[in-house]
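## Example pair
The file below holds two records. Each record gives the amino-acid sequence first, followed by its structure token line.
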Amino acid sequence: MRAAMALALPSLFWSGNFIVARAMRGDLPPIALSVARWLIALLFLLPFALPHLRRDWPWYRAHWKLVVAIGVPGVTLFNTLAYVGLQYTTASNGMLLNSTIPVLILILGALFWGRALKLAQVAGLAVSIVGVLVIILHGEWARLVALEFSIGDLIIFGAMICWAVYTLLMTRVPAEINRLGLLTVQIAMTLVLLMPALAVEVASGRVPVWTPGTLAAMAYVGIVPSVLATLLYMRAITLAGPALAGQSIHLLPVYGAVLSTIFLGEHLHLYHAIGFAAILSGIVIASRAGKG
């Protein structure tokens, strides 16, 4: 039951993150929203994390390169790139592209972690890649010939690569290292790294519009997807392994299809269904081959 909850809830919480970021894109610039998210999360987590920070501090110091290597793609870049991408593409597209994460975990695992791929897995990955292209090209293959890609979709796809790297690197963290403390350290690091980008955004004239709606949006992204979802996902990696944790991301477009229709008035198109079906089919083929 604990594993099932850890696998099911993060995608629901993260789908809300995409909905909020897309809905508030005119009032909350992406870097400002990212900084607000992690600042609220840090303030929320710090009182609970302090005992774990003191206990695990020697490990952080001894393995600081690993802490940075995990935190930059998983905390700093993933969230920020997703917010930037949602300035230019729909929440539906963004959440469908989350289904590429299991594909990317298999590919990156084979390329850089020495995880062998069977022929059937390669075939499954090829099918999934076709699905990714269908979504990014909006079902119009002429765009591929003309090299016309949606910039928002490409940015979000880059965010998915970052999350796959994060998922694989998290397996190197010993189980006895408290995940709450680790996340707190990585959030503090992220806030420092985002300051130059925030300065550039403000200098360009993009500043938040302060309303009850923007404050509520900041509170949501700062607590629910940042703290609750991330800790649950870390727990899912520990309980179920990185592959199954990655596959749980497939729940996100299911949640997202409902939420984006209700709250954003977005409509799913045939290319969404075809692309998602191809990605999911490829994952099924590859995962079954991996068990054989």
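Second record, same layout:
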Amino acid sequence: MYKIIAVAALAISAAWASPNGAIAGTTPAPAGAYAYIGYPNDGQVVPANKPFKVWFGLRYMGVAPKGVKYPNTGHHHLLIDTDLPPMDQEIPSDRNHLHFGAGETETMIQLPPGKHTLQLLMGDDMHVPHNPPVYSKKITVIAR
């Protein structure tokens, strides 16, 4: 009976470890750390088919390039029109998952007309989310 309770408790805690139920990576994140998009704002209209700036914010944590393993640091990944990836694996690198492994804190992107979502996710020195994962709220922008 006690084994069943212990297994159930482990399963519940693993599900709480990340937003999609997967166990998070092994690199610890500092307590209370969070990422945010400083610009554009949620619901903002941005120019369609023209570059515009996206500014990355981070609190209670530092930025370090890919491959640099230093406590309480990571680098940004911008998720465009997608949900958070599995938290226990390397963040994909494709048109929906942009990597900023040089430690960048802003970028210029271009979107086609329509509604789009943007979200930041911090990765460790090997592009794996921290434990607990550090990510921003998902915002919506309208490209017109």
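Notes on the second record: The two ends are 60 Å apart (CA to CA). Residues 83 and 115 are 15 Å apart (CA to CA).
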